[in-house]
Amino acid sequence: MRLLVAEDEQDLNRLIRKTLEKEGYGVDSCFDGEEALYYLEHTDYDGAILDIMMPKKDGLSVLKALRQKGSDLPVLFLTARDSISDRVLGLDSGADDYLIKPFDFDELLARIRAMTRKRSPHTSSVLTVGDLTLDTGSRQAARGGKPIDLSAREYAILEYMCMNPGIVLSREKIENHIWNYDYSGGSNVVDVYISYLRKKIDGGQKKKLIHTIWGAGWTIKEDP
Description:
This protein is of the alpha/beta class. The protein has helices spanning 10-22, 33-42, 59-68, 84-92, 105-119, 152-162, 171-178, 189-202; strands spanning 2-6, 26-30, 47-51, 75-79, 97-100, 126-129, 132-135, 140-143, 146-148, 210-213, 217-220.
């Protein structure tokens, strides 16, 4: 999943970004509300983490502008204010969740998983394609009950594919969804990771789940 982090405290911004990237998220970050709104209007994110008190435009104003455009993007507010009235204001403004500083990063990760799951058509935290299961809560994959060890990036790509079974995902779509604006890798990096996933998921299996659609991209599905 690709997330935006808008937080004007540079050290905290950096820590959040590194934590999320370690978990396999694609992350863009900025330090003020005007830049945050620009990013949100020009990029397809799966969720946003907004500090309420930011320069140029506060988080509430950013969210208001976003909702007025009809966006249902999941948004988590960060704030140092802990009064009930502040929390109510944030939630009534259209936020999906509210986290008070200082916070535990494990809790932040859990709240991100919960709020992005609301937007997904999948009601369960376990995604299934054939005999492949992907638990988005524990971030564990298994095929036929046998655990599969995945790197953070492999997991992110597999999760994206499993959330869109049967849909052809182009190289560009996967790059834009998994990596951030700072990415400067080779043009075949997606091909390399798909190759890794194919070996781990389909290696030694009679039924293949990952399919190449020549000239278009890849899809994950169970063939009859």
